[in-house]
Amino acid sequence: MLTFEERKAAFVDIGHLLGRLIDKHSLKPSENQADFLETLKLAQAENQWFTQENICFALKEWGASLTEENLSNWLRGYDLSDDDTKQIIGVVMAGNIPLVGFHDFLSVLICGHSLIVKQSSNDKRLLPYLADKLIEIQPKFKDNIEFTDKKLENYDAVIATGSNNTARYFEYYFSKVPHIIRRNRNGVAILTGKESPEDFKSLGQDIFKYFGLGCRNVSKLYVPKGYDFKLFFEGISGYNSVIEHHKYANNYDYNKAVYLMSEIKFMDSGFLILKEDQHLSTPIGVINYEVYEDENALKNSISLQKNNIQCIVGKHEIANFTFGKAQNPSLSDYADGIDTINFLKHLDTHHYEETQF
Predict the structure, then answer these.
(1) Do residues 159 and 102 make contact, with C-beta atoms less than 8 angstroms apart?
(2) What is the count of structural domains for the chain?
(3) Element (H, E) at 218
(4) Is the Cβ–Cβ distance between 290 and 276 less than 8 Å?
(5) Which secondary-structure segment (H or E) carries 311?
(6) What mean pLDDT comes out for the span 116-128?
(7) Same domain, 23 and 97
(8) In what order do the strands lie in the sheet containing 179-182?
(9) Does residue 126 belong to any structural domain of this protein?
(10) Residue 356: its pLDDT value, please?
(11) Is residue 14 scored above 90 in pLDDT?
């Protein structure tokens, strides 16, 4: 059985590997490996939202996170002393952005458990590649990692991520085992009218990275009464290249046509639609905004939506990410605010009968 220090050291080596493969948002030509390039090519072919830039961004971010210092700081507050208690965790992963399930993969293995991964068909190449590299680094992981495209079976607990609709199904299906069920969430940004051009440029990163498909992407702005959007549109103008991606352009054009035919008022940058709407979730190419009268109204509106908000961006006191950092969470920034490590270290070990349909 692997010790905690052995598990941690293997993930540090994965971080080094990613650092050697990726330079910012592109590949390092001198370090390209044939198997990595083939994996990258397949991932892009199977999901056209997975551009090379976005895949490399995700890999680079994980490479920067998987350091000895970061892992030690993250796990210092938990009792991860080695013992013989090892359980099998089923992990149902989403596929909206590259490697969206890697944190769960890391958490299960770093705690000493085994996992059975059911991936989304939209993202089924990148994690198996990294799992193979992890096993090359530390062969003892081989018996702890399984991928399946069938129904999950023989698990002791489950972590599942999906839409609000699938979450209801997950809650029922996995009700007899300890579980974490994640639903739709979105990022929001609070604007005060005191933002600089650089702030808006950074905010564009929070909006457009991964074409807005991530749960941390900003999909809604909170703005003060009488707010002038001129500086906002000027600040995000450098992201106009998103319209060159055909899937993004098709979604943008479709939503614009729907709003025009429905006589819904909106503002248009030529590559982003901005409309007043209290909802957090938006279609691709669309951002909602809500006007707040004062601080109390803002905090009340945020509070009412707290179970649907993944992160809050801005310089306001209640923001938990600065502009441009929504897609750079630390290891302790748990999805939906649920402490995955704490869950994995305190699993109920009762027996269960798997629900049958």
Answers:
(1) no
(2) 2
(3) strand 218-224
(4) yes
(5) strand 309-313
(6) 96
(7) yes
(8) 145-148, 114-118, 88-92, 157-161, 179-182
(9) yes
(10) 30
(11) yes
| Closest alpha carbon to 140 in 112, 106, 107 | 112
Cα separation, 69 vs 12, in Å, equals 9
CA count, 13 A, side-chain hemisphere, 17: 16
- Amino acid identity for residue 301 in this structure: S
Contact 233, 305 (CB under 8 A): no
349, pLDDT greater than 60: no
- Burial (Cβ within 10 Å: 0-12, 13-18, ≥19) of residue 151: exposed
Q: What is d(CA 354, CA 64) in angstroms, rounded to the nearest whole number?
A: 39
Give the range of the structural domain holding residue 42, as residue numbers without chain letter.
Answer: 4-183
Q: Within 10 Å of residue 111's Cβ, how many Cβ atoms?
A: 23
CB 351 within 8 A of CB 87: no
Domain harbouring 226, CATH code: 3.40.309.10
Q: What is the tens place of the pLDDT at every residue in 41-94?
A: 999 999 999 999 999 999 999 999 999 999 999 999 998 877 667 899 999 999
Whose CA is closest to 333, among 224, 196, 216? 216
Q: Is the model's pTM score more than 0.90?
A: yes
Instruction: Give the E-state strand segments of 24-166 in sequence order.
Output: 26-27, 88-92, 114-118, 145-148, 157-161
* 158 three-class SS: strand
Distances (CA, A) of 189 to 94, 143, 221, 224, 275: 24, 43, 5, 12, 15
